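QA checklist item 7 of 12: single-chain prediction sanity check.
[x] sequence parsed
[x] length recorded as 221
[x] structure emitted
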Amino acid sequence: MFIVISGGSTTAEYLISMMLEQNHRITLIEEDRETIDHLADTLPPEVLIIEGDGTDSAVQLDAGVDDADLFVALMGHDETNLVACEIAMTAFNVPRCIANVNNPKNGRIFHEVGIEPVSSTELIARMVEEEAIVGDMRMVFSLREGDIVMVETKLPAKMRHKGGVRVADIPFSHDTQLIAVIRDDEFVMITGDTVLYPGETIIAATKSDAEEEFRNIIRHL
């Protein structure tokens, strides 16, 4: 699948990492030069970065939105994300658009025009209500209206495996995928041979109905 993402936030980095694991083709639109320089050093070379405004149809065309299967708007303002998605849908007939919504109350507006809104604020509020936030785990992104979530969590400071544990030896289900570990402020991709150590912060993607199992495994490392 070909995915175009507008907005080079930390969330975009997490999402791109997950999508590349699934062999999707990614193009990113970003207008801030400092952010572009950071992403160019961080992201794999197969990710094309287009400099420009994601609400500009000419920039979207340069990014190949006319061939995209999915457009994701992750810019800082709801209004900007709405406009970018509407251009992608109306000018380039993108079949599916997802937008980050900072104010959950705006979600209805996005739904009405056929855009899938994602609100971390709304999801976290629901998790608190369900007493689902445990320890240092927090939601960073969700897809398919919450069916798939990305979480950031800190491993226990006192793990049973004091010398660290190899990812391939952790009994995660097929519904959970570890993506990256943050070490010395660096974003390090996780493989089966990666060793995780006490107190490290990891990024994972999991189906929402597998979250509880994921939390239990993390607790008992």
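[x] summary fact logged: The chain has two domains: 2-118, 124-219.
[ ] second reviewer sign-off
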